[in-house]
Amino acid sequence: MKNSHSAFHNSQPSLTPLDYAYRLLARRAYSEQELTDKLLAKGFTTVAVTRTVARLKTQDQVERLRSRGFGPEGIKSKLAQKGLSSASVEQTLETSGENQDLESARRLLASRFSADALKEPQTYARAFRLLLRRGYSQEVVESLLGSAPEDG
Q1: What is the pLDDT of residues 20-78, one digit of tens each?
Q2: Rg of the chain's alpha carbons, rounded to an integer?
Q3: Global pTM value
Q4: Phi-psi label, residue 149: left if phi above 0, alpha if psi -120 to 50, beta otherwise
Q5: In the chain, where the domains are located
Q6: Taking the CA of residue 78 as centre, how many other CA atoms within 13 Å lie in the half-sphere pointing to its CB?
Q7: 3-class DSSP assignment, residue 102
Q8: I need a labelling partner for 141 at 20 to 30 A (CA). Which of 7, 50, 72, 88 fits?
């Protein structure tokens, strides 16, 4: 006979600490400590809570850098300088996908260069170098900028 009050950490096994954290954060912002306390009170293990809070913190930092115009390699480099594990940053970047990279690169370009200016070979080259410096892959840069304008 199955015991409904098992020793498992949660009566809803499908609810992960991350799911629960998202539910909480959808209602209002919490400090790291408040979120940790809430997750522990819900019955999640200390290890699971620590991992979840770290992941949310990484996601937040990735989004901030992306909104400032950094691509995946630039984000990895910046967060490695802050001591974040490359594995957690990599995992966060993989879940967000290349479409977001393309979109953030497009926003960065639009904030710096007009479409007409990008038709000028020198401006095109500056934009190309900027995107590479910010950590976008050559494929993303080329798909966004297209081929170089002819020197005319």
Answers
A1: 999 998 999 899 999 999 999 999 999 999 999 988 988 899 989 998 999 999 999 99
A2: 21
A3: 0.71
A4: beta
A5: 17-145
A6: 18
A7: helix
A8: 88
